[in-house]
Amino acid sequence: MHVDVEMEIPFHDVDTMNIVWHGHYIKYFEIARCKLLDLFGYNYNDMLNSGYAWPVIDSHVRYIYGIKFQQKIRVRATLKEWENRLKIDYLIFDAETGKRMTKGYTTQVAVNMQTHELCLQSPQILFDRLKAWDLFVSDQA
What we know:
The protein is an alpha+beta fold.
């Protein structure tokens, strides 16, 4: 399961060399991650409403090529793991050439909002949402 998001790099995201400041890549990952979570109906409000928070506990970015001011990019977020955690892989491409610019991943875990305890297995609501999405896709085929 994956989603692609296209965007143009704004001036306020670049440094004096007109290259995206390294910290903004995580923001681009977050934008794509929200669209991915929307895809199967379990975005951050849905998570909180179901009694869980999903903090990011690990993130990694590999900067391959610098992204420039006004460059159009495509960010792909792919759900890789969900049984005990959410692991999402990211690829950032130049939207016009398809050249891979950056890759990375984030890892999130469920925390029960009543007890503030870390869940060692993803809660059932996540499996239910993923199953509903799978059934929806199957019906569309």
